[in-house]
Design goal:
Layout: H1 8-13, E1 21-24, E2 28-32, E3 40-46, H2 61-77, E4 84-87, E5 103-107
Antiparallel strand pairs: 1-2, 2-3, 3-5, 4-5
Length: 116
């Protein structure tokens, strides 16, 4: 596993950078994306730094499940009753630009397939 480095997300967790936070608990933080790709675009991040999904281990299983449940709760709170998409980019070819695991919640419009 790679050594965690400070990222923009760790700075948001530590309140060094402001963010429009919509949810927080002991394990996770969620905030609105500053360059939204849909009318609703929220990022859910674990407070424990995991660089990318491919580097998660069996010890992260409960945390990963927690992040998905948080995403579902936020989608409900945001009124995304007609549907939403949850995206996890992994690695350079997967479109990951910040190497701190994060889930994108996208909604408020019909999504297209294939996505990219």
């Amino acid at each position: 596993m790679s050594q965690p480095t400070e990222t923009i997300f760790s700075k948001i967790i530590n309140r060094q950078i402001p963010a429009n936070i919509v949810y927080e608990d002991d394990l996770s933080l969620a905030f609105r994306d500053i360059t939204p790709q849909a009318p609703v675009h929220i990022l859910v991040i674990p407070k424990q730094p995991i660089p990318m999904l491919a580097e998660a281990t069996a010890q992260d299983q409960a945390l990963l499940g927690h992040l998905l449940l948080v995403a579902a709760k936020i989608a409900k709170d945001e009124g995304l009753d007609r549907g939403f998409r949850v995206v996890i980019n992994n690695g350079d070819h997967g479109g990951q630009t910040v190497f701190h695991l994060h889930l994108h919640i996208l909604g408020g419009r019909a999504m297209q397939w294939p996505p990219g």
